Amino acid sequence: MNKLVMRRKASDNVYFHPQFHIAMNMIIDYIEKNFGKKAVREYLKQFAAACYKPMKEKIKKQGLKALAGYIEQLYRKEGAKVKIYRETDLLKVSIKKCPAVSYIRKKKQPVSRSFFETTKTIYETILESTDFEFKVDKYDRKTGGSVLIFRRKE
Amino acid sequence: MISCTDFIPAYSEFFKFLEKKGGKQTVIKFWEYLSDRYLKDLKKLVKKHGLKGCWLYWSKTLNEEAADFKMELDEKNGIFKITMFHCPSKGKLLKLKHIEPYKDYCKHCDVLYRRILEPSGFCYKIDLSNCEKARCKINVIKR
User: Fold this and answer.
1) Looking at the domain covering A17-152, what would its CATH class be?
2) How far is CA B76 from CA A150, B24, B50, B73, B141, in A?
3) Which of A3, A14, A20 to mutate to test the interface with B (most CBs of B within 10 A)?
4) pLDDT digits (tens, 9 = 90+) for B62-104
5) What's the CATH fold of domain B4-142?
6) Chain B: residue nearest A99 by CA?
7) CA of B119 to nearest chain A CA: how many angstroms apart?
């Protein structure tokens, strides 16, 4: 029955807690079951408008270059491979497997039916009132693999 | 996909969303729901290892979240303590100047863990008096 002590500073570790994907999935599932699918989009719009406000401003100033950098970094941190093709007014992102979906499945949790909205609604909201538009070209519900297209509005 | 590193602002915004939908009680109801489903690992660990289960659980989560903390386990006297010098969760919200944290954000740690630990035979005490500085203290005492 020894005494145990652990002292850690923030700099001792890298901030990466993939279990949060499970919590996010639970949130989406909870909203859908208690308030409906429309409410899932309503919540994600509220979150994206608040959280990604600086990103929206960056896109307004720098165009899709800003978004490409963000997406590349996001998936690198999650340890996933993405293919990014960029022209001045076009950004195409191919994601073989979504790291969040992979993690949720690895933990044997069912992926919520509206989980897809964490991609669709988030990017639609980020691009709202910019010169760009977004569409999900392909989406595999099993793996979360997708092809995302961002382009200048015609 | 929302990056797991963006989860904290998503969490805080969700509490605001729920409160707008149905008031504080709706937020608390969700915390209880989350506790029952998300903290199964903690429940299993304290069931199997007693107070040391707390040590095992938070050893993983606090390191993954890169917290600035001191954790102490004194099994002989039946006390487990966390002194959080800088909570990565509240700290992140305070750092994001464009986001207003949910006003009772830190209270989720009171509801979520109490719901697991008290029925498991422990007294759970949380001091949130410095939570606006991203600091708090948790004591879990064997009854």
Assistant:
1) alpha beta
2) 60, 39, 12, 9, 11
3) A20
4) 999 899 999 999 999 999 999 999 999 999 999 999 999 999 9
5) Muramoyl-pentapeptide Carboxypeptidase; domain 2 (3.30.1380)
6) B1
7) 23
